[in-house]
Amino acid sequence: MTQSEALAWAEEWINNWNRRDVEAVLADFADDVEFTSPRAAPITGKASLTGKPALRDYWNRGMAAIRSIHFDLDYVIADGDRLGIIYTSEINGTRMRSVEFLRFNDAGLVCGGEAMHGAMLS
User: Fold this and answer.
1) What's the first-to-final CA gap in the chain, in angstroms?
2) Global pTM?
3) pLDDT tens-digit profile of 60-94?
4) Mind giving me the DSSP string for 25-87?
5) Which of 54, 61, 99, 101 has the smallest set of CB atoms within 10 Å of its CB?
């Protein structure tokens, strides 16, 4: 993935989240995706999820608890089949720096990922 392709992909990912469109986000994920997020544990009972149905359930349940959401893309790092999306998230009025590390399979779908959420921003 080139840097310009990575930027376009990340911008679309951000736009899909800002529209609260979980299905549009999931369209770019492989059926057997493995995904880890510290925010998943309180919702699903575990931080690591396997498969698109598990990820869909987590994101839909999480989205149901969110009154407002807005992501702003800060920058993107592309390295072969890996992508880092660094962004500022504002969820229910709380701002923080976040990063998603994603790995793509040969079909161009996300097959692995990890979400990291930093300290709250003022």
Assistant:
1) 34
2) 0.92
3) 999 999 999 999 999 999 999 999 999 999 999 99
4) HHTTEEEEEEEE-TTHHHHHS-SEEESHHHHHHHHHHHHHT-S-EEEEEEEEEEETTEEEEEE
5) 61
